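Handout, section B. The chain below has 185 residues.
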Amino acid sequence: MGMPIQKLTLAEYIEWENAQPDRNEYVRGEVFAMVGGRRSHGRVVSNLNRRLSEAVEGTSCQVFCESMKVQVAADSILYPDVFVTCDRDDLRTEQVFKSPIVVVGVLSPSTQAYDRGLKFVLYRGLPSLREYVLIDVDARRVEAFRVGTDGLWVLHDMSGLASLAIPAIDATIAMTEVFAGVDAA
Protein backbone atom coordinates (compact mmCIF):
# COMPACT_ATOMS: atom_id res chain seq x y z
CA MET A 1 0.00 0.00 0.00
CA GLY A 2 1.40 3.40 -0.97
CA MET A 3 1.10 6.78 0.66
CA PRO A 4 -2.41 8.17 1.09
CA ILE A 5 -3.55 10.45 -1.72
CA GLN A 6 -6.17 12.41 0.21
CA LYS A 7 -8.84 12.14 2.92
CA LEU A 8 -12.45 11.82 1.70
CA THR A 9 -15.88 10.84 2.97
CA LEU A 10 -17.26 7.53 1.73
CA ALA A 11 -19.61 9.27 -0.73
CA GLU A 12 -16.79 11.51 -2.00
CA TYR A 13 -14.51 8.51 -2.40
CA ILE A 14 -17.06 6.52 -4.42
CA GLU A 15 -17.80 9.45 -6.72
CA TRP A 16 -14.09 10.20 -7.17
CA GLU A 17 -13.07 6.52 -7.55
CA ASN A 18 -15.64 5.87 -10.26
CA ALA A 19 -13.97 8.54 -12.39
CA GLN A 20 -10.43 7.16 -11.97
CA PRO A 21 -8.61 5.03 -14.56
CA ASP A 22 -6.77 3.09 -11.83
CA ARG A 23 -8.00 1.43 -8.64
CA ASN A 24 -7.60 3.10 -5.27
CA GLU A 25 -8.48 1.59 -1.90
CA TYR A 26 -10.22 3.60 0.81
CA VAL A 27 -8.91 2.78 4.27
CA ARG A 28 -10.13 4.58 7.35
CA GLY A 29 -11.03 7.66 5.32
CA GLU A 30 -7.78 7.82 3.34
CA VAL A 31 -7.28 6.92 -0.32
CA PHE A 32 -4.35 4.73 -1.39
CA ALA A 33 -3.32 4.00 -4.96
CA MET A 34 -3.10 0.30 -5.79
CA VAL A 35 0.18 -1.01 -7.14
CA GLY A 36 0.30 -2.68 -10.54
CA GLY A 37 0.23 -6.45 -10.68
CA ARG A 38 2.69 -8.90 -12.20
CA ARG A 39 1.93 -11.58 -14.79
CA SER A 40 2.13 -14.37 -12.20
CA HIS A 41 -0.34 -12.50 -9.98
CA GLY A 42 -2.78 -12.08 -12.86
CA ARG A 43 -2.41 -15.72 -13.87
CA VAL A 44 -3.28 -17.01 -10.36
CA VAL A 45 -6.23 -14.60 -10.08
CA SER A 46 -7.52 -15.79 -13.46
CA ASN A 47 -7.09 -19.45 -12.49
CA LEU A 48 -8.93 -18.95 -9.19
CA ASN A 49 -11.73 -16.98 -10.81
CA ARG A 50 -12.33 -19.80 -13.31
CA ARG A 51 -12.08 -22.69 -10.81
CA LEU A 52 -14.12 -21.01 -8.08
CA SER A 53 -16.79 -20.05 -10.63
CA GLU A 54 -16.99 -23.71 -11.64
CA ALA A 55 -17.27 -24.69 -7.96
CA VAL A 56 -20.25 -22.39 -7.28
CA GLU A 57 -22.04 -23.05 -10.55
CA GLY A 58 -25.65 -23.97 -9.87
CA THR A 59 -25.64 -22.35 -6.42
CA SER A 60 -26.80 -18.93 -5.27
CA CYS A 61 -23.16 -17.77 -5.03
CA GLN A 62 -21.03 -15.82 -7.52
CA VAL A 63 -17.32 -15.11 -7.88
CA PHE A 64 -15.86 -11.67 -8.56
CA CYS A 65 -12.33 -10.44 -8.99
CA GLU A 66 -10.00 -7.45 -8.87
CA SER A 67 -12.16 -4.57 -10.13
CA MET A 68 -15.00 -5.03 -7.63
CA LYS A 69 -15.21 -3.00 -4.42
CA VAL A 70 -15.96 -4.56 -1.01
CA GLN A 71 -16.99 -2.27 1.84
CA VAL A 72 -15.43 -3.64 5.02
CA ALA A 73 -16.32 -0.75 7.35
CA ALA A 74 -18.12 2.59 7.24
CA ASP A 75 -14.83 4.24 6.29
CA SER A 76 -13.07 1.48 4.31
CA ILE A 77 -13.44 -0.10 0.87
CA LEU A 78 -11.03 -2.69 -0.50
CA TYR A 79 -10.47 -4.42 -3.82
CA PRO A 80 -10.00 -8.15 -3.14
CA ASP A 81 -8.17 -10.15 -5.78
CA VAL A 82 -10.99 -12.73 -5.76
CA PHE A 83 -14.08 -13.09 -3.59
CA VAL A 84 -17.24 -15.16 -3.37
CA THR A 85 -20.58 -13.84 -2.20
CA CYS A 86 -23.92 -15.57 -1.79
CA ASP A 87 -25.71 -12.52 -0.41
CA ARG A 88 -28.86 -11.45 -2.30
CA ASP A 89 -28.10 -7.73 -1.91
CA ASP A 90 -24.54 -8.27 -3.13
CA LEU A 91 -25.81 -10.13 -6.19
CA ARG A 92 -27.94 -7.09 -7.11
CA THR A 93 -25.34 -4.36 -6.55
CA GLU A 94 -23.39 -2.74 -9.35
CA GLN A 95 -20.99 -0.79 -7.17
CA VAL A 96 -20.14 -1.93 -3.67
CA PHE A 97 -20.33 -5.45 -2.21
CA LYS A 98 -20.70 -5.92 1.54
CA SER A 99 -21.03 -9.62 2.38
CA PRO A 100 -18.39 -11.91 0.88
CA ILE A 101 -18.03 -15.35 2.45
CA VAL A 102 -14.60 -16.03 0.94
CA VAL A 103 -11.85 -13.52 0.12
CA VAL A 104 -8.63 -14.51 -1.63
CA GLY A 105 -5.53 -12.32 -1.70
CA VAL A 106 -2.69 -13.06 -4.07
CA LEU A 107 0.34 -11.61 -2.33
CA SER A 108 3.05 -9.45 -3.79
CA PRO A 109 6.32 -8.60 -2.06
CA SER A 110 5.30 -4.95 -1.66
CA THR A 111 1.85 -5.61 -0.15
CA GLN A 112 2.33 -8.85 1.78
CA ALA A 113 2.58 -7.23 5.22
CA TYR A 114 -0.51 -5.09 4.54
CA ASP A 115 -2.52 -8.11 3.30
CA ARG A 116 -1.56 -10.16 6.38
CA GLY A 117 -2.00 -7.25 8.80
CA LEU A 118 -4.40 -4.32 8.46
CA LYS A 119 -6.29 -5.77 5.51
CA PHE A 120 -6.98 -9.00 7.43
CA VAL A 121 -8.10 -6.96 10.45
CA LEU A 122 -10.54 -5.05 8.24
CA TYR A 123 -11.90 -8.20 6.57
CA ARG A 124 -12.43 -9.89 9.95
CA GLY A 125 -14.94 -7.14 10.73
CA LEU A 126 -17.30 -8.60 8.10
CA PRO A 127 -19.87 -10.86 9.81
CA SER A 128 -20.35 -12.79 6.55
CA LEU A 129 -16.69 -13.74 6.03
CA ARG A 130 -15.88 -17.42 6.65
CA GLU A 131 -12.47 -17.75 4.93
CA TYR A 132 -9.54 -15.49 4.06
CA VAL A 133 -7.07 -17.21 1.73
CA LEU A 134 -3.59 -15.85 1.07
CA ILE A 135 -1.48 -17.10 -1.82
CA ASP A 136 2.22 -16.28 -2.13
CA VAL A 137 3.01 -17.09 -5.75
CA ASP A 138 6.79 -16.77 -5.41
CA ALA A 139 7.06 -19.06 -2.35
CA ARG A 140 4.15 -21.32 -3.43
CA ARG A 141 2.57 -20.81 0.01
CA VAL A 142 -1.17 -21.18 0.39
CA GLU A 143 -2.73 -20.30 3.74
CA ALA A 144 -6.39 -20.14 4.64
CA PHE A 145 -7.72 -18.48 7.75
CA ARG A 146 -11.11 -19.89 8.74
CA VAL A 147 -13.42 -18.63 11.43
CA GLY A 148 -14.75 -21.29 13.78
CA THR A 149 -18.09 -21.49 15.56
CA ASP A 150 -16.32 -19.90 18.55
CA GLY A 151 -15.50 -16.82 16.44
CA LEU A 152 -11.76 -17.51 16.46
CA TRP A 153 -9.75 -17.46 13.24
CA VAL A 154 -7.57 -20.53 12.66
CA LEU A 155 -4.72 -20.85 10.17
CA HIS A 156 -4.82 -23.82 7.78
CA ASP A 157 -1.50 -24.02 5.95
CA MET A 158 -2.02 -25.87 2.67
CA SER A 159 1.46 -25.18 1.31
CA GLY A 160 2.85 -28.37 -0.15
CA LEU A 161 -0.54 -30.09 -0.30
CA ALA A 162 -2.01 -31.39 -3.54
CA SER A 163 -5.08 -29.15 -3.37
CA LEU A 164 -6.56 -25.97 -1.95
CA ALA A 165 -9.69 -26.64 0.09
CA ILE A 166 -12.30 -23.93 0.64
CA PRO A 167 -15.02 -25.57 2.77
CA ALA A 168 -17.17 -22.42 2.98
CA ILE A 169 -18.22 -23.07 -0.63
CA ASP A 170 -17.41 -26.78 -0.73
CA ALA A 171 -14.57 -26.22 -3.23
CA THR A 172 -11.36 -28.10 -3.80
CA ILE A 173 -8.86 -26.91 -6.41
CA ALA A 174 -5.71 -28.78 -7.37
CA MET A 175 -2.60 -26.71 -6.66
CA THR A 176 -1.48 -27.42 -10.24
CA GLU A 177 -4.62 -25.55 -11.33
CA VAL A 178 -4.05 -22.70 -8.88
CA PHE A 179 -0.53 -22.14 -10.24
CA ALA A 180 -1.16 -23.16 -13.88
CA GLY A 181 0.73 -20.96 -16.33
CA VAL A 182 2.79 -19.20 -13.68
CA ASP A 183 6.07 -20.73 -14.83
CA ALA A 184 5.23 -20.53 -18.54
CA ALA A 185 7.99 -19.06 -20.67
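Note. Residues 39-56 form the longest helix (18 residues). Compare this with the example in section A.
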